[in-house]
Each structure stands twice: as structure tokens, then as C-alpha cells.
# Entry
Amino acid sequence: MQTVQNHTGAESAGLNAAVNVDEIMQKVAEHKGCGTSGGSGKASCGSGAGANDLPPEIWEKVKNHPCYSEEAHHHYARMHVAVAPACNIQCNYCNRKYDCANESRPGVVSEKLTPEQAAKKVLAVASTIPQMTVLGIAGPGDPLANPEKTFKTFELVAKHAPDIKLCVSTNGLALPDHVERLSQYNIDHVTITINMIDPEVGAKIYPWIYYKKKRYTGVEAAKILSDRQLQGLEMLTERGILSKINSVMIPGINDEHLVEVNKAVKSRGAFLHNIMPLISAPEHGTVFGLTGQRGPTAQELKALQDKCEGEMNMMRHCRQCRADAVGLLGEDRSAEFTTDKIMAMEVNYDLDARKAYQEAVEKERQAVVAAKQEELQTLAGAHSDIKMLIAVATKGGGKVNEHFGHASEFQIYELSTAGAKFVGHRRVDLYCQGGYGEEDALGTVIRAINDCHAVFVAKIGGCPKSDLKAAGIDPVDQYAGQFIEQSAIAYFKEYLDKVASGEIEHVAKGDAVIRQGALIAA
Amino acid sequence: MAYKIVEENCTGCCACEPECPNQAISETSNGLFVIDPAKCTECIGHYDEPQCVAVCPIDLTCIIDENYPRYEAA
# Structure
């Protein structure tokens, strides 16, 4: 493996495109070779890419970014500010009219903010949640269709909170017009939603775009959008800005095609690919919701992610959060920071206190990695083809530290002799609560983790315990408070021993349901 | 003559405001948008299609206001 050279050169010589693309592609290629299976002492590639398998300056950029580093998402928080209400395209999975306080999905937000309100909110949140390291602008429309509001917000935040990383998520239509400005504002993470590279596929996803003072429809619209997205991605790569690609997996429309998308974005220097399940509950009123377009099952999603993983890093920890989300991924504390509340807050932005807190987080994080590495040694030399999934109830910090009944999501790990690999998460809370008794809630949980052999929890009551067992899911509370991966590897080792001795028989599990929208009674 | 914005449909997304060549669109106190019929030219002479209609995410939100005669370019 070659060492990385002259990164600063790559960033400063932004005009010499040909040279820079090669240089950056070189860097991307360097970590691409790492195994996806983890293995002896090496952090696994994919979204779990760690310090050992990324070029140091890229690691430096992503290590505290919960959306770019799976490892970081256990420890660091992000926030979105909803300063960008306008959009320049229409997607069939989005309905701009719909909003609901109990709902969590992209493009939806309860109140829009001015750049000044947004900056105040960022400072208020950063002072309350010291592990909040990233500010993203993701909508509820398209940030680059609202360039003045977006850049004004970044300018204000950079001035008052220079330690916060800035990033932006866009559909890409206006991206080529703003890449230069993005690089001037020191934004080193950009997410582009790319659902297709074939306009025929695109025409089924995008009814229209608004471009250069004109509304385009059909294949023509999709062609313009695709060209602009890929051009924008190339321009970001030339400037050394890290790009993550989001793709919505729409079964029957672009599911197979996303393998081609994956190759196209990888060859243009994208750093991470995030394939997300379509959210299409009928009550959202989206075109796909109304036409009955289904989202993928857990197995379908994982199979596609696995298929693309050989090509590039895959993100599997995306929570598809709202344009005003606040907190660790998987939690949303936005209700604590409404405009009324933040305007009344005394904000004391203490950079040193934040730094001290983050140093403590860093220690905890290193302890997680060390514990995992140590436990991995115990699997050395073990041979087995068995792969199994487990679900984990966690509040963060990389530990098994949530009560079964309190979990609003479970993190999913795949266990094999290569170790424990994070492969996703399952929501189990109800977006719109009401009318469903606890019995239904338990059924929901079981359906959501039905592909798992075990569920790790800090604590669990007797009733759910026996129901889980009946469903073939082993409730495990012996690792309460301990590190997830270390515990998972220890459990797997024990499991293999039991299979080897004939005490238990390994049976494959079925598929699971990805929760979305309000619960639809079966 | 003029276009108008159907209040029940407007989401307040503000996409139309900067696109109007006549600065005829403004935000109301409740965060939605209105078109000043005295300023609206239906984009005649500016663009092939009315810009508020072209950019609005909700169908049938920016519509012809029947209370005014059609605009005629001078």
C-alpha cells in the first residue's frame, strides 16, 4: 500500500483538475483494498472504516463526523438547521405539504429558521450537547436552491463556533454552480442524493425539475439532473471535498440499477455510499405512498449494500433524519431547541469545555476499539461458515446500556469468525403513537429484529423474554453495561463452541421488516 | 392580470419569491406567500412560462386570478 503524499497540494491547487483527480482517486483507491470482513486486528472497511484503513488526512476529516464514520456515530452528535425551505426538483418519495410532529423522515420539518436564528440554535445546542460536532444543512428543500440562506448560516456559525464541522446535503442540480463557494466556506463534507444514472430510470423517480428558469419533465429532466449531479461530484473530488452519495432504494425501479450508480460514483471519487430504504407509507401522501410502491425488506437492503461493498465504503448507520434533527443519530432532541426556547436561552459558547468533553469521549472511544481488538484475538484460528445477526439496545458510547422496553431502535451486528460488524439498525418506536397496546409493540419489535439470533439488552422483563425465545431470538442481558463488539464476539465464540459440541443447532433466521411511517396493522 | 397563490396549498417554502422577475411575490405575516396583482405580468415578456408555477412544489397552487383581466404586454 502506498503512502499518501502531498494532500495540501491537492487542496490548494484546485484549478489543476486533471492532476488532482488522479491524486485524490489514488487516496480513495488506497483504502478501497481493505477487506470488508474485518479480520485479525484490522478495523473493518465499509462504513466502519477506522484509523487504520483510511489515509490520515481523510480520517482526520471524518473521525468525529457521525454520518461519515460508523464508529463516530456512537459518540458524536449532529444537528440540522432548517434554513432551506425551497426546492428545485420534485421527487416521488417526497410530499412537501406533509408534516407531523411524530414523524421522522428527510424533507420534513416543523418550523423554518432564518440564518440568524439558525446560528443561535447551533450555539445553544453546542453549549448543551458538547459532543455535537457537526452542523448539516439538509433542507427541508434543497440547500443549494437557497444559497444565500445556506451560506449566510455557515458564515455565522464559522465565526462563532469555529470547531464545528459544516456539511451540506443536496440533490445536486445546482451543485456545479456552488462548488467554488463551498470550498471557500471550508465545507469539507457534501452529500449528494443520486438515485440513478440512467434518465429512463430517473423519469420514474422525478416528475420534474426547475432548471434555468424552466420546468423540465420526464427523461429530459432526469438527464439534466444526472449530468449535473455527476459533474458536481467530479468538481468536489477535484477540490478534495469529501462526498457521500445517498441513494434511495426503490424496489422494482432502481434497486438493480444502484449497483451501476455505485460504480459511477465510485469512479468519480465519492468517499461513501449510503443506500437507504424507501419510506413510502400511504399516509405521507407521496406519489410512491399513493401508488403502493413498497420499500425494501431488511434482507433486500442488506443484500444490495453487501453487493456494493466490494466496490466502496458503505454507510449502514443512516437514520434518515429530519431536516431539523438534533442529537446522536437515532435520537432527536429537536423538541428541546424550538425557536422560542433558543431565543430565550443564555448561550455561553465555551470552546475549552467542549474540547475537554470531547477528549473524554475520545478516551472512551479508544477503549471500545481496544476491547474489540482484544476480544478478536480469542477468535483467532476459529473456522466456521456461520454468520448471524444480533440486535443491540444501546443509548450510545458503544455499550449495551439500554433496557429492552425503552429501546426506540436496535443496532444490528453481523457476527462471523471475522468479528462483529455493524450492518444497520431497526427502528421500533411508533411514529404516531396511540391505539397500540404493549402487546402490539412487542410484535413490532419481533418483526423488526426477526432476522436476528439474539438481542443484547441492559435489562429485560420476564414476559418479553419468553416471547422472544418463542420467536427464536435469544434475549441476552449478561453483557449489561459492557462494550458491544467485545460482548458480541464473546457471545459468538460461546455460540460456536455450543454448536461444535452439539448442544445447539444453528438454524438460519428469516427476513425482517423495516419500520416506516405509522404502524400499519397486519 | 395576474397569478395568485392558493393559500391552503402554499407551504411557505419561498421557492417562488426569488424567481419572480417583477418582485411581485412577498411573504405574509403567517409565513406564506402572496402575489401583488398590480406587479404580476404572468412573466409575459420575461419567460416562456410563469416562474411561480414552474417552481412551485404543489400543483394548482399558483393559478390565474380570475378577478383580473389577462395581462397584455405593452
